Fold:
Amino acid sequence: MQQRKFILSEKDIPTHWYNIVADMDEKPRPPLHPGTGEPIGPEMLEPLFPEELIRQEVSQEKWIPIPDEVRDMYSIWRPTPLFRAHNLEKALDTPAKIYYKYEGVSPAGSHKPNTAIPQAYYNKQAGVKRITTETGAGQWGSALSFACQLFDIDCEVYMVRISFDHKPYRKTMMNTWGAKVFPSPSNNTEAGRNILAEDPDSPGSLGIAISEAVEQAAKDPHTKYALGSVLNHVLTHQTIIGQEAIKQMEMAGGMPDVVIAPFGGGSNFAGLTFPFLRLNMEEGHQIRFVASEPASCPKLTRGQFRYDFGDAVGMTPLIPMYTLGHDFVPAPIHAGGLRYHGAGAIVSQLLHNDLIEAEALMNKEVFEAGVLFARTEGIIPAPEASHGIASVIREANKAKEEGQTKSILFNLCGHGNFDMKAFEDYFAGKIEDHELTQSEIDASLDKLATPMVE
Amino acid sequence: MQQRKFILSEKDIPTHWYNIVADMDEKPRPPLHPGTGEPIGPEMLEPLFPEELIRQEVSQEKWIPIPDEVRDMYSIWRPTPLFRAHNLEKALDTPAKIYYKYEGVSPAGSHKPNTAIPQAYYNKQAGVKRITTETGAGQWGSALSFACQLFDIDCEVYMVRISFDHKPYRKTMMNTWGAKVFPSPSNNTEAGRNILAEDPDSPGSLGIAISEAVEQAAKDPHTKYALGSVLNHVLTHQTIIGQEAIKQMEMAGGMPDVVIAPFGGGSNFAGLTFPFLRLNMEEGHQIRFVASEPASCPKLTRGQFRYDFGDAVGMTPLIPMYTLGHDFVPAPIHAGGLRYHGAGAIVSQLLHNDLIEAEALMNKEVFEAGVLFARTEGIIPAPEASHGIASVIREANKAKEEGQTKSILFNLCGHGNFDMKAFEDYFAGKIEDHELTQSEIDASLDKLATPMVE
Structure:
């Protein structure tokens, strides 16, 4: 019998997070104060985050120890399995070997708890009583609700009103883990009340929800805020994915030739690829890395590398990022987790230095890939994860054309159990391809007054 | 760090199914022909099932070899993990050790693919082109769709109309695996057309859906029918659960004192318990076995042991079963998988011989247990599985009162990702307890003219 799964035991859960900044020749530029244009100090982040997370955000240490309490909670679902996709290979009739790391085995169904757990833990250690956050489609809100429940912290999630109304099951999932979920804009905050005063039927946006969550955290010393992607400490927490995958690829016969992951803000991409990137930097491997982004939100392939706000309304420091402009509104594709205007500072620097690649994919190709995957490998992938699968299929088909025996690894970052509406739309022929014109991109970028990163 | 998960490798996937009939002192009585009252021969089943499954249905062999092709497909998700529920134990402050076998890691989210895969395989071997089945809430239909896709057989699912309308995501899940799903009653069959002629707005029922699926299979030599529980071969296929669990309990320190599983038609209960029952029969263990059924459908605790039809409309042979009467309609509780009027013949015989126990649980206790489980162990359990959890909590509380260090194992037979509406209703205070009066039960049983099993 051919082996499908490469499985580690709990003692193989990594003991440290890998901070790639320590190994980068060219470090990411620091965030800037939007008023003064000067680099901000860690103290600017103190109203929002506990001290240890701020320390990790600016850390230059290569290995950051994972507390035992965090490893213990990781063991609820980690290590996650690594699969050889025998059935998909056969369907593609490709000489390529295809592997995937499956993060959908977490209770919340994605890789997001990898950072939600330590964020909840460090907040608990700092005496924080309540964490606020925003969520769009609900993946991040679910993960943080689960993590806060484990460490007995109150969790308040501001969920974009239109998602709150259209995705009641994600809200119920968060309630099941004890979180309070508010449709945003809400009457809880000044930001929310102002918007409701102007438009009582506002459908909300991620930008508004961030404003509400941040306002709640900033005004109460016992409340902090948590973010699920983009920031350095978030990406660093995710590196347990790639560390496990390296051990599993050793079991499977050796390192991959190419590593692929979907790209939203960068957290699942960083999680899988950074530990393999270390092998390139330290041990002379020549692994390629491909970030798969939607053609409707192509910051990596068509954006500018410049300073921009992390949020939609301009409340955060300026981050050096590949961006389409902070108020760019992507088409409402189903891969909600990839509808972010920018990329984290580390990943942006790596792309700028040609250490990683990116490609943009159209919707129909993505869903076709997702359905083929479900029909061969069984697991129904999230639309976000299906972007990675589409890139894998491109690589596998290229291997077939060129007659190469290539080894491909990708991050199946979440299952699609809560995304059935997306597949329903696909089968009903309602999925449209969205490719931006250059003038649409220019129109968004031309509004930015912030400096380019040289 | 305390170990949470006991993990096997793919080579530990069992090589044989365990057929408990071989070890039973008192065998289950044969099914009877409803017209003649005589035992039926295997040939009566030939229009519906392929030869090998009929052979297994009546087999007295103790070990039935699992074909390599089936083990290969099992390896997509098997072996499944066995967990020690440290967080739940802590929350209950119990001296009991609690373990659970988690079957929700299958792509379809429950234990059902354990039998769907071999059923699809044997049909494929027999040259069958199409399999029909019925589904209520959608668990079984999903599992069979997935299995048929793997073996390239067409799959047609007759889904109870009211579920078809209320659970579009289950339908989409089946479509994603390539199945055709029809709301039942449909215009595809005479049975369906007759009902629609009388009532064009019929909400359907499991009985009607069975009639349609069976009619389609019986009239086409290339089409067969598949059932997801109750029958002997189905229960036998599920015994891979318990066989794996025995190895895992050995890793965890020894056999459990009590094994608990939810009870619908008997398939997840049989799957976990039968291999442990063998240890009682062969090696003198004294493990207790508890079937958890809903108080609104209490065939094991309050039904009669007599011959009754397996379906609601009287199309099947008469099966010796604990039953509430084949046209008994349970309250519309959310645990759709437990809303079945009877119990499989083997399990019924075991209960009659006091080799297993049963208890009935009320809805609120069940959901309270499910939510506590989600908030401690992370995984959100299906309402069906939550019945088992409620029984576990009873045992753990008893252990605490009595100061015993008891070891409890239960079958977490599926996750609740597609059952969020149930939890939403629970949080909204809309979950009601349903306990039947004796006169309600008598009224249903008094209609039966079939003989008791002596």
Observations:
- Residues 383-402 of chain B form the longest helix (20 residues).
- The radius of gyration of chain B is 21 Å.
- Chain B is about 40% helix and 15% strand.
- Chain B touches chain A through 45 residues (CB under 8 Å).
